[in-house]
Every structure is written in structure tokens, then in C-alpha cells.
Write a structure and sequence with these properties.
single chain; 13 strands; alpha/beta; 2 domains; Ribosomal Protein L25, Chain P; 6-stranded mixed sheet; 7-stranded parallel sheet
Length: 242
């Protein structure tokens, strides 16, 4: 059953009104009718609701059940170097499906130059749309945040906002995921994934000076999008969110 995001102010007693893009999607795209059931979420509660009236720009619903949403362990944030956009879109979509609520995009020394030039406001709007649609499809209660494009130096300055930073690097030999995860504070975790060509030693050294821990994902070399999805999955498993 589909879920739609709603503001608490749109709920009054056992009635709710869905407006804007959410009501349009409900009626025009999903073709729901009066009497159909849907889920609503206001970030703290999930409601099962029945459509009562369909207006040109709004939908009135009757709430039939309310559930308090359980708080899980905080999911890691993901910082990923710009990739070819279809690969990046895959990472954003699958990251949201895995429960990631915060994304940072950055330019590394080995980022293909025209990738950075192509991150226009229109492209960012597309990334935001992909994230929002994935969040609704997976039942997330809030829309994940994607930050404006950063340089690698700007990203490093963000490390201080996190309890732990894991930087995946194919040349790391000592720190396996299992051994490293047991030693870090995972209460607010950031996962950092580099570009297709990997991180140069200079950037890894700079990141480690700022508190990042180099992370090995095994002997095989993974594509950037695979490394991102694999690392997030492992983190969510260890945090008890999967």
C-alpha cells in the first residue's frame, strides 16, 4: 500500500487533507479512488487512511489507525564523489532504500572534470526527485537531505560533525570492515566513497589527519557504486537496522 508524506497541520482529529504534489500523485498517477486505503506519515506517526473525497487540488481522508513509529539506530550518512549520473542516481536510490537520510556530493582529484560542471540546479532537482520518490516507495517517514556539491577540502571540514568517518580505499590492507566497525563510535557515522579511479594517497592522508579511518572491502576491487551500496548495507546490518 503506498505511503504519502503529510504535515501535522494537515491532520485534524480523525480527518486529514492531502494537498499539492502528494494529492496529484495519489489521484493522477496512482489513479486511486474514493474508498481506497493508503498510508500517511507525519514523521512521528504512520496512519492508515481511507479516501473520502477527491477535489481538484486536494484529497480528504479518514484516519482509521495510528501507529507510533519506532526509532531505529541513526543511519550513516553517505559522502560520494561525483560519478556518471546514472551510476550516481542508482546510489542515491539504493541508499534511500537502505535507510540513508543524508547525502554529500563532492569532487575529488580524480573526478572526471565534466561531471562537476554538469551538476546544475536542474540536475540537483532531479537528484532530489529520485530521493523523494525512493523515500515514499520504501516507507521512510522523512525526505532524506542531499547537500550542495562540495570540494574534497570542504568535505573534510564536515568530518568534525560526525562521531566516526569510514573512507573506503582499495589500497587499505589493515582495516577490514568487521574489525574497524567494532572500534569506532557509530552514533553518527559518515561513509566516504571515492570516484571511479579511487582516491590518491594525498587525499587519503588528508582525510586520515582529519579523523577518517581507511576501510578495506576485501581483496577484490569494487566499482564505486557497488562499494557504496555494499558499505551502507554492512553498516546498517551492524547498527541493527537490517
Amino acid at each position: 500500500m503506498p505511503q504519502f508524506l503529510i504535515q501535522p497541520s494537515q491532520i485534524e482529529g480523525d480527518r486529514a487533507t492531502l494537498t499539492g504534489e502528494e494529492s496529484k500523485h495519489l489521484v493522477k498517477v496512482l489513479r486511486h479512488k474514493v474508498g481506497d486505503s493508503v498510508f500517511l506519515s507525519d514523521g512521528a506517526h504512520q496512519y492508515e487512511a481511507v479516501i473520502e473525497t477527491i477535489h481538484p487540488k486536494a484529497v480528504d481522508l479518514r484516519l482509521v489507525e495510528r501507529r507510533v513509529l519506532k526509532v531505529s539506530a541513526p543511519s550513516p550518512a553517505l559522502a560520494i564523489a561525483l560519478l556518471k549520473h546514472d551510476h550516481l542516481e542508482l546510489v542515491l536510490q539504493k541508499g534511500v532504500e537502505l535507510g540513508i537520510a543524508e547525502f554529500f556530493l563532492f569532487v575529488s582529484e580524480r573526478t572526471i572534470p565534466h561531471y562537476g560542471d554538469s551538476v546544475t540546479p536542474k540536475k540537483m532537482a532531479r537528484f532530489e526527485k529520485i530521493i523523494k520518490e525512493a523515500a515514499k516507495q520504501t516507507g521512510m517517514v522523512t525526505i532524506p537531505k542531499i547537500h550542495p556539491l562540495l570540494t574534497f577540502e570542504q568535505l573534510i571540514h564536515k568530518f568534525k560533525d560526525f562521531s566516526g568517518v569510514l573512507l573506503a580505499w582499495e589500497k587499505e590492507e589493515d582495516n577490514s570492515f568487521h574489525s574497524l566497525f567494532q572500534t569506532i563510535d557509530s552514533s553518527r557515522l559518515l561513509v566516504v566513497i571515492g570516484p571511479e579511479g579511487g582516491f590518491p594517497l594525498k587525499e587519503v592522508t588528508e582525510a586520515e589527519k582529519a579523523g577518517a579511518k581507511g576501510l578495506s572491502l576485501g581483496r577484490q576491487i569494487l566499482r564505486a557504486e557497488t562499494a557504496a551500496i555494499a558499505t551502507l548495507t554492512l553498516c546498517q546490518y551492524e547498527l541493527g537496522n537490517i
